[in-house]
Design brief:
heterodimer; A: 416 residues; Rossmann fold; 9-stranded mixed beta sheet; 15 strands; 39% helix; B: 368 residues; mainly alpha; two-stranded antiparallel sheet
Chain lengths: 416, 368
C-alpha cells in the first residue's frame, strides 16, 4: 500500500514536473536581441561604450524580461553602411534575433532602416545613430528611435553661443549626415537670433590632416563650432593646438563626450569653457540619472577599460535597449503575430529614461530632452560637463512649423 | 600575330551571346584553329566539375536565404571582381590594385544613370536599368583600359603603386565630389530590377543571377587563356622582350588585358552594388582595394577558380569570425587565418589543393 502511494506520488510529481516544464518552455523561451555597434574604425571606443550601455539595461533586469531569458547576440561594423547592413542581416537572418538594436552612426542608421523594410516581422530599434533622414525621409514602419537625433541635441545652443558673445563663428564638421543634422540644429537657432557663420568646413570622416582647415580659419570669428567625433576630434584638437590656435570652441554632441574629455593631450585644458548641446550631461543631478551613472560605474569599473562616467553612446544605447525591454514587459513577452502588439506598445509607451521621459512621434522618432552644457574641471582635475540649461520636449521639427523646416545639408541653413 | 587577330579573339568572348556566335561560326566554317579552341573545354570536363556545378545549382534549395544571399551571392560577386585580378596578375603578370575601383566605377554609374535615391539630391537620371547597366559597364571598361594604359609601362611594385594611386584618387574624388558622386553619403536604394516578374532583389533569383555571371566569367577566362590572345599574354608575362622581338605589340596586349579584366570587374561591380543596395566612397576605399588582392592571393592566382575559393573563405571569416572569438578581437582571427594560408602555401588555397593532390594521387604530367 505504502509502496503504491509512493509510486503514485512519484508519477504525479513527474506529471506536474512535465507540465510545468512545458509551461516553462512556453513562458521561458529566451528572447533573442541583436546588438550592433562599431567596434572597429573611427568610433571603436564609442561603440564599445554603447555596448556597455545596452548590456547595462539587461543587467539591471538580471538578464530576464517578462519571464523570458534575454539572449544577446552582438555584431560589429566599422561605421560603413554596407558593413552595418551585412552585420544586421547576419543577426536577423542567420542568428534569428527577435529584436534588433543598432547601429551607431548616421549613415549606417539610414542603411539599416532601408534594410528593415525587407524584414517586416522583426522590430528594429536604433542604437545611437542620429541622422535626421532616418525617420524623416521614407520612414520604415518597423524602425523605432527612442533617442533624439543630431539636430534635436543642438537646440538651445545657438542662444547659448550668442549669450557667450560669439557673434561670428566658423563651422568645422565631418562631411556626412549626422554632422549636417547637428549643424542645422545649431545654425537654425543661431542664424535666427542674428549670429553669422561666414565659413563652413566639411572634412572627411576619419580624416587625419586638418592643416588645410586650420589655415582657413578667419581671423575675425569669435569661436569655432567643432562637430567632430572620436579620433577625429582628438586629431583636430592636437593639430589646432600645434598651430597655435586659441579660439574658444562650441562643441557638437560627440565632440565633448566623455571619451573626448578623457583624452590626454595638452589642448585638454583649453576645452574648459566649451559649450555644447547634448542629450547627456555628466553633472545632471536628477536621481534617475545618478542611479544610472552609479550602476554604470559599478558594472564597469575604470580598470576594465570603461570611462569614469558613461558617454553619450552608453546612455543612448541604454535608452534604446531599455525601450526594447520595457516594451517586452508591456506585452508580457508576447511577440506573436509579427510582433504587432509589441510595436503598438512601443509606439504608445512613455519611456522613463535617466534624462527624463521620452515619447514617440508619428514617424517613431523620440521627442525628448537636450542639455546645454559647459566643460569645467573638478577638484581631481577631471573634466566634466556642467549643465547650463535643460530644454524639454524637443520634437524633430525643432519647434518650427513643418513648412519652414528644411533638413540639414552642406548648404542648408546658410547665414554668411 | 597581329593586333587584329587578338582583337577578334577578344571580341568573340565578350559575352555569352558572342560565344554562341563563335560556336555557330565553327559549324559553318570548321577550321583547325577553332576546333583546337573548343576541344580542351569538353575533354577537360570531369566528375568533379559536374559535382561542383550541381552543388552550386542546388545550393539555395538546402541553404537558408541568408546563406544563399550573404554568403553565396556575396562570395560569387566578390570572386568575380577578384577573378579580373587573377586574370591580370596570374596570366598577364600585372598586379593591379585598381580592380575594385573599376568595379566601383561601374557601381556608381549604375546608381547615377539608373534609379537610386541620393538622400537629398536629384543626381540619378533614372534611365531604364538595362541601359544604365550597359553604359556603366562600357564606361568602367574604358576607365579600366585607361588605367591599363597609364600603368602598363611599369613593372612589379611600380604597377601596384600606380594602380593604388589611381584607386585612392578615385576614392577621394567620390568622397569630395558632390555634383556627381554625392560625397560621403553616396547613393542609397540602388536595387536590382524586376525582370519578367522576377524580383532580382530576392535571395534566390539574385543568387542565380550572380552564379550565371560568375560561371560566364569563369569559363570566359578559361577559354581566353587558351585562345591566341591569352597564350600571347602569358608569353608576355614570361618574357616581354622576346615577345616583342617576335612581332607582338606588348603594350597593346597589356592594355587589352586591362580592358578585358575591366569588363569582368565591371560586371562584378554591378552585381555587388545590387547586392549592397547602396554605394559610397567606403565601397571603393583602400581597404576594399586591398581586400580584392587578399581574396585573389588567398585563393591562388594560377587558376580562375582561385578567386572564388578565396572569396568564400573571406566572406565566411568576415561574417562568422565574431562568433568564434572575442568580440573585440575578432579581426585578429581574420588576419591570422590569412597569414596561415599564405605562409604555408605561397599559392593560396589552390596550392594546398595541388599539394594534397600530388600527395594522394599519382602525379600526372600536366596539372592544368
Amino acid at each position: 500500500m505504502r509502496k503504491r502511494t509512493f509510486v503514485r506520488t512519484l508519477v504525479g510529481a513527474a506529471v506536474v514536473a512535465a507540465f510545468s516544464g512545458i509551461a516553462y518552455a512556453q513562458q521561458g523561451k529566451p528572447v533573442k536581441i541583436g546588438l550592433l555597434a562599431t567596434l572597429e574604425g573611427p568610433f571603436a571606443a564609442g561603440g564599445a561604450d554603447g555596448m556597455r550601455g545596452a548590456e547595462l539595461a539587461i543587467k539591471q533586469r538580471n538578464g530576464v524580461v517578462a519571464g523570458r531569458k534575454i539572449e544577446l547576440v552582438k555584431a560589429s561594423s566599422d561605421a560603413k553602411p554596407d558593413v552595418a547592413v551585412n552585420a544586421t542581416r547576419k543577426l536577423v537572418e542567420q542568428d534569428k534575433v527577435d529584436i534588433m538594436v543598432g547601429p551607431l552612426s548616421g549613415g549606417e542608421g539610414i542603411a539599416v532602416k532601408e534594410y528593415s523594410k525587407t524584414q517586416p516581422n522583426i522590430t528594429f530599434i536604433n542604437g545611437s545613430s542620429g541622422a535626421q533622414a532616418t525617420t524623416l525621409v521614407n520612414p520604415s514602419p518597423n524602425f523605432f528611435r527612442f533617442n533624439t537625433e543630431g539636430a534635436q541635441w543642438m537646440v538651445g545652443l545657438g542662444k547659448a553661443a550668442l549669450d557667450k558673445g560669439y557673434k561670428r563663428v566658423m563651422v568645422i564638421a565631418e562631411d556626412y549626415a549626422f554632422p549636417y543634422s547637428q549643424v542645422q540644429g545649431f545654425m537654425s537657432e543661431y542664424c535666427r537670433l542674428g549670429g553669422k557663420v561666414p565659413v563652413k568646413a566639411w572634412v572627411p570622416l576619419g580624416g587625419k590632416d586638418y592643416a588645410s582647415v586650420i589655415a582657413r580659419i578667419p581671423k575675425d570669428v569669435d569661436a569655432l563650432v567643432v562637430v567632430l567625433g572620436g579620433a577625429d576630434a582628438v586629431n583636430f584638437l592636437n593639430q589646432y593646438e600645434a598651430a597655435g590656435g586659441d579660439k574658444p570652441m562650441v562643441g557638437g554632441s560627440i565632440t565633448v563626450s566623455q571619451d573626448i574629455l578623457n583624452y590626454k593631450g595638452k589642448r585638454r585644458d583649453s576645452l574648459v569653457g566649451t559649450i555644447a548641446g547634448s542629450p547627456i550631461a555628466d553633472s545632471y543631478d536628477a536621481p534617475e540619472f545618478k542611479k544610472f551613472v552609479a550602476d554604470y560605474q559599478k558594472a564597469y569599473p575604470v580598470s576594465s577599460g570603461a570611462y569614469p562616467s558613461p558617454s553619450l553612446f552608453a546612455l543612448v544605447y541604454y535608452i534604446n535597449m531599455k525601450a526594447a525591454l520595457d516594451g517586452l514587459d508591456a506585452v508580457k513577452g508576447d511577440l506573436s503575430d509579427g510582433q504587432k502588439k509589441y510595436r503598438e506598445a512601443l509606439q504608445k509607451m512613455t519611456l522613463k529614461t535617466p534624462v527624463g521621459d521620452v515619447k514617440l512621434d508619428a514617424n517613431r522618432q523620440a521627442i525628448g530632452t537636450t542639455f546645454i552644457t559647459e566643460v569645467v574641471k573638478d577638484k581631481q582635475g577631471n573634466l566634466y560637463n556642467k549643465v547650463l540649461r535643460k530644454v524639454d520636449g524637443i520634437d524633430q521639427m525643432l519647434g518650427m512649423p513643418k513648412e519652414q523646416f528644411q533638413m540639414g545639408s552642406r548648404d542648408v541653413p546658410n547665414c554668411p | 600575330m597581329s593586333a587584329a587577330n587578338w582583337r577578334n579573339a577578344m571580341n568573340s568572348g565578350a559575352g555569352r551571346a558572342a560565344m554562341l556566335n563563335r560556336g555557330q561560326a565553327a559549324v559553318a566554317l570548321p577550321g583547325p584553329g577553332i576546333a583546337w579552341d573548343l576541344k580542351p573545354i569538353f575533354t577537360a570536363i570531369s566528375f568533379r566539375h559536374v559535382a561542383v556545378l550541381l552543388f552550386l545549382l542546388a545550393f539555395p534549395w538546402f541553404a537558408t536565404p541568408f546563406f544563399t544571399f550573404q554568403i553565396g551571392a556575396q562570395s560569387l560577386a566578390l570572386g568575380l571582381i577578384a577573378l579580373s585580378l587573377t586574370f591580370l596578375g596570374g596570366y598577364g603578370g600585372m598586379v593591379s590594385l585598381a580592380q575594385m575601383t573599376v568595379a566601383g566605377i561601374a557601381g556608381y554609374m549604375v546608381a547615377i544613370f539608373g534609379a537610386a535615391a541620393a538622400a537629398d539630391s536629384t543626381i540619378s537620371l533614372g534611365w531604364p536599368w538595362w541601359l544604365a547597366v550597359l553604359v556603366a559597364i562600357a564606361i568602367a571598361t574604358v576607365c579600366a583600359a585607361f588605367i591599363g594604359w597609364l600603368s602598363v609601362r611599369t613593372e612589379g611594385i611600380y604597377t601596384i603603386m600606380i594602380t593604388l594611386a589611381v584607386g585612392v584618387a578615385f576614392y577621394y574624388l567620390c568622397l569630395q565630389n558632390y555634383s556627381v558622386f554625392n560625397g560621403f553619403q553616396g547613393f542609397q536604394r540602388v536595387h536590382a530590377p524586376t525582370v519578367l516578374g522576377v524580383n532580382l532583389r530576392d535571395a534566390l533569383p539574385f543568387y542565380y543571377l550572380v552564379l550565371f555571371w560568375s560561371l560566364a566569367g569563369y569559363f570566359f577566362v578559361k577559354y581566353l587563356v587558351r585562345a591566341p590572345f591569352g597564350i600571347a599574354l602569358q608569353g608576355i608575362r614570361d618574357n616581354p622582350r622576346r615577345m616583342n622581338s617576335l612581332g607582338f605589340n606588348v603594350t597593346a596586349h597589356r592594355v587589352a588585358a586591362y580592358a578585358v579584366a575591366g569588363v569582368i570587374a565591371a560586371v562584378g561591380g554591378v552585381l555587388l552594388v545590387w547586392y549592397n543596395g547602396l554605394i559610397g566612397p567606403g565601397s571603393v576605399g583602400t581597404s576594399w582595394l586591398i581586400n580584392i588582392l587578399i581574396i585573389a592571393v588567398l585563393g591562388g592566382m594560377r587558376h580562375p577558380i582561385g578567386p572564388f575559393l578565396g572569396a568564400i573563405v573571406f566572406v565566411l571569416l568576415q561574417t562568422f569570425a565574431i562568433d568564434v572569438f572575442d568580440r573585440e578581437r575578432f579581426n585578429l582571427v581574420i588576419g591570422m587565418v590569412f597569414l596561415v594560408i599564405v605562409l604555408f602555401s605561397p599559392d593560396g588555397l589552390l596550392g594546398w589543393w595541388a599539394g594534397l593532390k600530388s600527395k594522394f594521387l599519382t602525379p600526372r604530367g600536366d596539372v592544368r
